[in-house]
User: What shape does this take?
Amino acid sequence: MGFWFPVEEVDEGTARLLVPTIDRGKGEPLDHARSRAAVFYNPLMRLNRDTAVLAVSLRGDHLGRTVEACEPMCGCGVRGIRLALEAGAVRVLMGDLNPSGVQISEENVRRNGVSDRVRVRFMDANLMLNLHSSPRNRLDYVDIDPFGSPSELLDSALRATRDGGLIALTATDMAPLCGVSPSACLRKYGGKPLRTAYTHEVALRLVIGAAVRAAAVHETGIKPLFGYYADHYVRVYLSLRHSAKPADAALAEMGYIVHCQRCLYREAVKGAYLKASRTCPVCSSQLTVGGPMWLGDFADNSFAGGMLEKAVKIRGWEPRLTHLIETICGEIGFPPTYYHLDEFSSRAGISSLNMDEIMAKLTAAGFRSTRTHFDPRGVRTTASATDLANFIKG
Ligand SMILES: C[S@@+](CC[C@H](N)C(=O)[O-])C[C@H]1O[C@@H](n2cnc3c(N)ncnc32)[C@H](O)[C@@H]1O
Ligand SMILES: [Zn+2]
Assistant: This one.
């Protein structure tokens, strides 16, 4: 098959794909060049696709039948093809609004021998999802992987997903989510970001929070099964329950984080309206407020554990995958936010702090602590900022 742009072959997982050739010799930074290519393919997002393979495979085990999946923004088709090849019994409907993307996806489907279970359409993503919004046509898995924010597709994705189904959201618009453009964050996610050391965690919580509120409109509750941050994007797998009770339960996990920029005190306050004081109880400074956002766990013990169990049995994943899942498993059940050790060491005038030593001190004093996948220098603990600062000094 001929393409109007140069192509090359790449391997990802068990798929062999045609993707546009990127001229690495040209002046543009590689990511920029990729986003301008005739069809999108980013090898860095392999970790993201690996998690999709694990999540869909687990869902298939749970359902005990073929998973009906949809990827309405498929680029060169890599994700849907990998699901069909690696995630067990899966039927995938893929779409894209880029005709070259559809053409190369069709060729990739043919080359990988999955034409019997993967279809490709030249179609707008919202339209594709809306064609599946009636109760009998809904899907088990919808994967929203756009340029930037998934917000514009959230409602269609929710309506196209079955009771008990799974929605995956990628958000790459980290500038709004991390507070560089708070007004854009309010528009897209209905919440205020926080410019703190744990801003990426807030970003993930804002995305989940937007999904909780969009689902509640449909009397649907959502539960995060596996959420994470990597390589300047956040990603989350959400399970859906079509009933008012789980919708109320999810809304009860929404709230605000108040943060003191001076002494690093922070508190997560649940509730639709912020009733907490805006004055820091430790140093009396004015508190900064972020939210509303999701304040519950961003991963589920049995789902993340199941992903890990599957991941360790198979070779050839993106090298960071199993460590990422393990670290996230350790973060479940801890309160929101973590402490960045470098922020504390620079305030204490100490050149560098050893993570293991600090964690051992916290344990000896009766606090729980764990590392966080959000930052290699971050510690998540039940101790307060004041407690931690005192340990560091003493
Ligand atoms: C980030 S890329 C998708 C990458 C792909 N999911 C992967 O794993 O490699 C986003 C894709 O969305 C497509 N797109 C943008 N707007 C769209 C729309 N309204 N409907 C369908 N596809 C759209 C773009 O052409 C692009 O291929
Ligand atoms: Zn304070």
Notes: DSSP finds 15 helices and 15 strands in the chain.
